[in-house]
Amino acid sequence: MISPDEEELIIRARAGDPAAYERLLTPTVRSATRLAFAMLRDRTEAEDVFQESALRAWRRLQNLREGSRFEPWFIGIVANQCREVRRTRWWQLVHFPEVGGMESVGDVAWLESEDLRRAIARLPRDQRVAVLLHFHLDMPLTDVAVALGLKPAGVKTRINRALKRLRPLLAVSEVPVNG
Q1: What distance in Å separates the CA atoms of residue 7 and residue 67, rounded to the nearest whole number?
Q2: Interatomic CA distance for residues 142 and 151, integer angstroms
Q3: Which end of the chain is less packed: N or C, by CB atoms within 10 Å?
Q4: What is the pLDDT of residues 54-108, one digit of tens each?
């Protein structure tokens, strides 16, 4: 649910107030850049994606539905921008080695395992984005649904399918809990 303060900032930003837009954007920097880095594994590309997404969101702010929160909408733009970057000829022709860490952007501890990074990279894009948004950015399912333009049930389905694919890739065995 949108707060009255956020709603006021959105109204002001739509009216062309750059300071209001900056205040809307500031809390999303960490989660948006973490998502971009997790998807692209390149710090420079992640920063570029954030900048381009911020510009696109500013231009398309009128597309944000009345009463909707800014962050999930913006994260959806970041996810789509990552997809576009991955599709470009440059990305497909030049493969850079993986760059270790993006500490200034945020804690990527759960993605430190090379096996986990590779397994997540092998997921279909729709499942990978849902997993990263929910588990890596700790976004609630309802916000993930907004970011991806789905219903929460669709997000749950994508995440469940992703987890089923990840288990054999990571050789995860479930151990019964005694208690």
Answers
A1: 7
A2: 8
A3: C
A4: 999 999 999 999 999 999 999 999 999 998 887 764 544 444 444 444 444 444 4
Separation between Cα atoms, residue 127 and residue 120, nearest integer Å: 9
Hey, what's the torsion of the CAs at 94, 98, 104, 105, to 10 degrees? 70
| Whole-number Å distance between alpha carbons of 41 and 34 | 10
Structural domains of the chain ordered from first start = 4-170 (1.20.140)
Q: How far is CA 12 from CA 18, 38, 99, in A?
A: 8, 32, 39
0.70 exceeded by the pTM?
no
Residue of 75, 64, 67 lying closest to 2 (CA atoms): 67
Choose among 75, 88, 86: nearest CA to 140: 75
Query: What whole-number distance in Å separates Cα of residue 23 and Cα of residue 27?
Result: 8
